[in-house]
Every structure is written in C-alpha cells, then in structure tokens.
Amino acid sequence: MYKPLIYLLLLFPLFIQAQKVLPEFDGIVSPEEWEGAETFKINYEIDPGNNIPSPHLTEVFITYSETDLYVGFIAYADMTNLRSSVRNRDEGFRDDNVLIGIDNYGDGRYMVSLGANPEGNQLDLKLLSTGQDDISYDVNFDSKASKHNDSYHVELKIPFGVLQFKQAPELKWKILLYRSTFTENNRSQNINFPIDLNNPSLPCQTPTEITLKNIKSKNRVNLLPYAYGGLEGTAPEGSLVYGNPKGTVGLSGLFDLNNITSLEYAINPDFSQVEADVSQITANNTFAIFFQERRPYFNEGNDIIETSLNTVYTRSINKPLLSTKLISQGENQRFYWLTAYDEASPYLIAGENRSYFGEGTASFSNIFRYQRTYDEGNNIGFLTTNRIFKSRGYGHTFGVDGRYWFKKSYTASFEFNKSILLEPTQDWIEETDRIRDKNTQLDGEKLNGDALYFSLQRNTKDWNTEIEYEQYSPHYQTPLGFVTQNSVRFFDVFHGYQHFFDKENFVKQLGVYLGSEINFNYDNLRKYLDFGSAMYIQLSGNIESEISYNYVINEEFEGFIGENMPEFSVFTSYNPSEAVRLGVFSRVGEALRYDSDNPAVGNNFFIGTFNNFQITPKLRISPSLRYSQLKNKEDGSLYFSGYIARSTINYQFNPNFSFRLIGEFNDFDKAFFLQPLLKWNPNPFTIFYIGGTNGYSRIDERNQYSIENSQLYMKFQYLFDL
Questions:
Q1: Do residues 627 and 606 make contact, with C-beta atoms less than 8 angstroms apart?
Q2: What angle do CA 337, 340, 345 make, to 5 degrees?
Q3: pTM
Q4: Sign of torsion, CA 312 315 321 325?
Q5: If 0-12 CB within 10 Å is exposed, 13-18 middle and 19+ buried, where does residue 245 land?
Q6: What is the Cα–Cα distance from 149 to 75, expressed in whole angstroms?
Q7: pLDDT tens digits, 552-600
Q8: Which helix (H) or strand (E) holds 16?
C-alpha cells in the first residue's frame, strides 16, 4: 500500500522541474519572474584594482529549461556615464558589457564566454587556460537588453546544443561572471570572485558552480547554402572594361554525431572575407606576413590546434573544393580532424634570413590533433599535418606537446616536431637561393627537419618571469603551418614587476619589465643579442602608456653585422568617453636595413595613430595613419619612406544591418582603394552582403591617379537549423 506513495515522492522533484516557470525572454529582468533561479553577484574589481569592491553592483540570475540555459543581469550604473552604441557582433567589447563564462568540463581547458552590451549586441569568445582569448569564436544564441533609470538589463538564452559536454543525469558546470563598466572615465573589469594572481589560469580559479539536472542537448543539423555573384573589371588602356559576370553556389553545414562530437563539411565553399585585411608596411621586411583567420568554417576548434611552433595555419588552405572537419570533446580527451581538397595551395619556404612564397596548385590536406586533458588546464597531445600535391610532392609534420602547471605559480610547456618533405617539381618559387646543401627551387629534393619549443613561466601577484627556447633546423618546413625562419635557435629571458595602487590614486597600475634575447644559427654564429626594458602605466582618465628601450648589441644579416643599435618606443591610448578613442605609437632609433645587396645600419623612425570617433550611437569613423622611414646614417639619404592612411566609416542601422566604407591609400605602392559594403548579419552564420572594391594607381606620365581595377560582388548565405 505504500508503493504508490513512494513512487510519487520519487517523481515529485521531476514534476517540480517540469513545472518550473521560466522568465519571459524580453530583456527586462524582473526578480519576480526569476524566482527560484540561482542568484549571484559580480562584486570584485580585478582591473585596474586588485580584488577591491566593484564600483557598481551587478546581480545575476541563472535558471534553465530542458533545452536552454537562461541568464539575467541587472547591472546598476550611473546611466549618464554609460557607454553603449549599436554595433556589429563582437564590437561591443569597447562598451559597458556583461558575460557569463562556462567551463562545462570543469578542468580549465577553456571557458565559452557569452554576453552582450546594453543594446543587446552579442559578444562571444573562448577564454583559454593560457590566459589568451579567441574572439573569432562564434556561438548561435539569443540576447535581449533594456535600459532603466539606474541600471541596464541583459537576458541571454543559450541552447545547450551549441555547447559540447558529457551527458549525465546531473551535471556541475563551473561558471565565471564578468562585467566591464566605466566610472570616472576609468574602465573597470569585474568578476564574481577574488582573483588569485599567483595562478596564471583564470578559468581554473572559479569556485562557482551551477547544477543542471536532466537537460537535453539537441543534436544540431545545420545547412549553410550560399550563392555568390561577381563582376571584375580592369583598365589595361586607361578605361575600365568589365568581364562577364561570374557566379557560384556551394554548401557547408554541421551535424552532431552525439553531444560531444560534431562533423562539419564544406562543398565548394566561398572563403572570401567580408572584412578586408589591414595592409601592413613591408618595406624593410624579408619574411612572409601573418594574417588572422576570419573564415567562419575554421571557427570551431581553433584552440585545439593552436601551438607555439605555428604548426597549423588554416589560411594555408586557400581554395578548397571539398573539406570535412570532425571535432570531439570528451571528458578527458579531445580530437580534431580536418581534411580538404585544395585547388590552389600556397607554398611557403622558411630560410635563415628570409622566406620564399609561391602559388601552388591542387593538393590534399589533412590535419589531425589528439589531446589528453587533465585538471587545471594541463594536457599532452599529438599533432600531424599532411599535404600531398596532385602534381607529385608532399609535406608531413609530426609533433608532440604538453603543458604542466605545478606549485601553483609555475607552468612548463614543450613542443617537438619532425618534418618530412618531397618537393614538387614546379616553378612556383622564383628565387634561386641556397639553404645549406639544398636550393630554393622546387626540383624534387627531399628535406627532413625538426623544431623544438620549451618555456618555463612563474606568475605571482607582483612578479612574472619567463624563460623560452626555440629552435628550427635548416630544412624544417611546415606545409600547413606558418614558420618563416629556420636555421636558428632563440633563447629569451623576461622578468617583470607589477603594482596595483589604491583606488583613489591617479596612477592605477604600474609595470616594469626587463628582458634579453639571443639567437644563433646552426653554425653557432651569433645572429642577434639585445637587452631591453619597458614600463607600463595606467592612469586615471582611461589613459594607458607603455615606454620601452631596446639596445641591440649585434644583429647579423647576410654576412653584415650591425652593432650597438639603440631604439626607443612609446605607445599611448586615451579613451575619455564613448565618443573618443585615441592611440599613438612611435619608434625611433637605429635599425638594420635588410637588403641582401647592400645591408646597412640606418636611422629608423616610425609613427602610427589609430582613432575611433563615435559620432552618434549608430555612426562611427575610424581613421588611422602609419608612417615609416629608414635613413642612411652617413649622408641622411633615404633608404625608404612612406605611409599607409586608412579610414573606415560604419553606419549601424540596427545590430544586424550595417553599411561600411573603407578607404586606404598606400604611399609605398602609390595606390589606393575604396571598398563599400552593405551587410545584413542576423546571426554568426547567416549573411547577405553587396559591395565592391575600386583600386586606383599612379600614372607617372600623367601625374595623376587612375582606376586600375574594379570588383562588384554579392553573396547570400543562410543558416537552416533543422
């Protein structure tokens, strides 16, 4: 007779959970609606103060349904000092904002951080155990916000399906709650617990947990078709002539095999970038230039394949016809496996004093990564990359790596790679230089090499020390990575002191740093030796500055040795209000001229300024200017001089719809371009844009600029969540 009563008692908690009343998702956080939710407070300022009381209280409410996590923030503020504008996704970090960080494995490997500014503009990033963050990371979630007399509210609705986690009837997830605000013109960063600066891993420190029972992770099935159309024009005889319109279609997508494993694919993807790369000054540079990966397909899993030896550089996969990517995140291990058939493969060769670059043809690419994870962000792993060219030739790397955190303040990391290459027989490289017993021409030679990295760090509240060693053997190459120099060994030592001042002080933070770097080639020739010092200071009024002095004792290049070269640099930023953000960087001193025919020591000068003016909550103008020159020390003649001026005008109709105009003039090339873009972007993956680029160059005999090329393009890509 008691059995029915026992069954009812056992089922009662499930009945209560099923009857849980969820808050109305409208951007207004009413404590009555959130009754029964777990409550927290963000009440510790960690920057510029060190665990001092937060200038403003933030209340946080967390509850959940069977399929979604709900987070509500009440951020009390001086609303007259609130910084908030309508922005594109991930641009609201410069405003007041709130975020929740979720460590759903509890081992500190990373935290997925999601939030919004007071306009509801979404922010997301992945905070890594190393202390670095990946702001290119995107998650599809919902956010709404509202403003009130004494606060702003933010509500987040996060589907469990966008997070990989182990499945269990009861889960305990570690969380971190964050708020960035401004008071008395100072940016204040705050979290929900006192930070321990003796521990370098912020995700590992959080003591806060939430308990989730009987949640379900809907397996994602996403389709992402696109259609692209374009028109290109050139002006071979001074007048612009357009060719025939070109168009293409393709498909990418994702489906979850289970709650910890996902498979992505791309068929004839369009990997053109909406955001144009900022041109870099290369007048005195002999090595290839690194550009950030911004293509959404490579978004998930970047933290798994990131290494100090740059073994993987996904932009080396340039024009794939077909690609697949498998990611699995288990409780104690994770996998990453990417394959691609690339129709146009960049070919990069590293050398001692320069790198060599060519445009290759079709190849098959493979990246496989395994990592065994432990508590506190510790791990050990294996990584291999493989590229096999259709026209003969291949390149393979095999490597092991690990990270170990011990005695609270110490972190040791290592990486070791082997490379095995068979050059294709092609004319992709123009230069005919030699690297030891091999030449840079692609003539079917076999190359074997290795690379090693080791670092030991000690981080405390006041002191930070790092010892770092790297080596790249003469024939080490990374077919799918980004290594531009080999035949060299690097040894660096760094030691720094930081101090936090009282809240009422004009000086908020001060850091003093000393360091030295010494490099040898594989003939034991000392290529470089320097000693340097720097000072970082943060002042009231949102002013930051870094001043550094570096003294190069010697630097060798192509048999020439420059000696006793001092250099002084200063960086300053000033952000007094939402409307004005100013920054300037300058460097003056002596530097080597990297010219293989006539290397020399010259007088170096560089100055750059980057600025942001928020004219209205929707209109922003961002001009920048960079000027560089190098002069002959003897007669003052110029080895080179020039500047790059760039300006971006952005009008944000609403968080999803914007117009942008970029103009850039490159004095080194005597050319400039204009790039208008109209964009609709309601979530990280759905996008419609129409835009173009007009390029202009100098015609000396006419002493004027004339259009050289033009491109018009349109793309529509839509996410179907099945």
A1: yes
A2: 125
A3: 0.87
A4: positive
A5: exposed
A6: 11
A7: 999 999 999 999 999 999 999 999 888 999 999 999 999 999 988 889 9
A8: helix 3-18
